């Protein structure tokens, strides 16, 4: 297995810096092999189309440790039911992927690399198909927007109710969302911002400072009564109920969403674990969820919230990047740690936790990018 993983990583270095060409060749070959597949993808392939290839590449890199990633691959298969892919489509995608890799790698490609990727793709597609076959839920849920609140020019908090079928999720998980009225067949992942409930209502926090397709529509165009589509929940940033360790939660911007869900779930049963939430943003106006967090603090003596701003000198709270603030309050060696925010914020916080010698199994995190 070590040699197998080595071959995958070694061969990936031949194409890693040419992701755009790899993606272009993959889809050109895919649609040439099966023109009917084109209708499963958005009209504009830029950005969103790459997500399927990114998912395949991510899955390929998990095969070096199949037991740890078995559930990830099965969840990925369940998630891909939203695209209406079947076993025949997986086989076609495998042919297109190998052809793209060979072409972009050029003379550096060899038979060993080819066989390693062939076996890896066979392994992940088998697990993904098994996950899809075992799922008794619909490929996606229709959901109605109930409320929509704007917070500044580029952030919105909305609630939706999944219709017809119960949608099971765990606090801390994320799912894919589509706005079919504005951008059909374009999916984007968002964390659920509330704990599971009997009403089938989910809350999402969305930020779109640019012209992102799905995020832009959710912030600026969606209104109560509109219909969305939700795919199967994924993610492992969930609570370990068997743990007795105190909890550190670090949220940046709309990374607050899964942290809020975790705190809500803890509020339903926790009596013994101290929970420390650090919530950071550039300016005080970006701390849109602070009032709600303070309401939870008032109701639960085991909870504390520390807000911080990095670009507002007059802020009545902590100053600086949230990772640095967390470092000043450490050490966090004996805590379960949950981190959610931008990739840069998460990396900085993970470095702080590593310096505190927090065991990696006690750290769970999610990153948020922009579409």
Automatic annotation (TrEMBL):
Source organism, top-level taxon: Bacteria
Domain Globin: 1-133
Cited Pfam families: FAD_binding_6, Globin, NAD_binding_1
CDD domains: Mb-like_oxidoreductase, O2ase_reductase_like
The EC number(s) this enzyme carries: 1.14.12.17
InterPro entries assigned: Cbr1-like_FAD-bd_dom, FAD-bd_FR_type, FNR_nucleotide-bd, Globin, Globin-like_sf, Globin/Proto, MRET, OxRdtase_FAD/NAD-bd
Molecular-function GO terms, alphabetical: 2 iron, 2 sulfur cluster binding; heme binding; nitric oxide dioxygenase NAD(P)H activity; oxygen binding; oxygen carrier activity
Catalytic activity: 2 nitric oxide + NADPH + 2 O2 = 2 nitrate + NADP(+) + H(+); 2 nitric oxide + NADH + 2 O2 = 2 nitrate + NAD(+) + H(+)
Keyword Secreted among UniProt keywords: no
Stretches assigned to coiled coil: none
Residue stretches making up the FAD-binding FR-type domain: 138-240
Keywords, in A-Z order: 2Fe-2S, Heme, Iron, Iron-sulfur, Metal-binding, NAD, NADP, Oxygen transport, Transport
Cofactor(s) listed: heme b; FAD
PROSITE patterns, per the entry: FAD_FR, GLOBIN
Classification via PANTHER family: NADH OXIDOREDUCTASE HCR, PROTEIN RFBI
Similarity annotation: In the C-terminal section; belongs to the flavoprotein pyridine nucleotide cytochrome reductase family.
Name of the protein in question: nitric oxide dioxygenase
Species per Swiss-Prot/TrEMBL record: Micromonospora krabiensis
Organism taxonomic ancestry: Bacteria, Bacillati, Actinomycetota, Actinomycetes, Micromonosporales
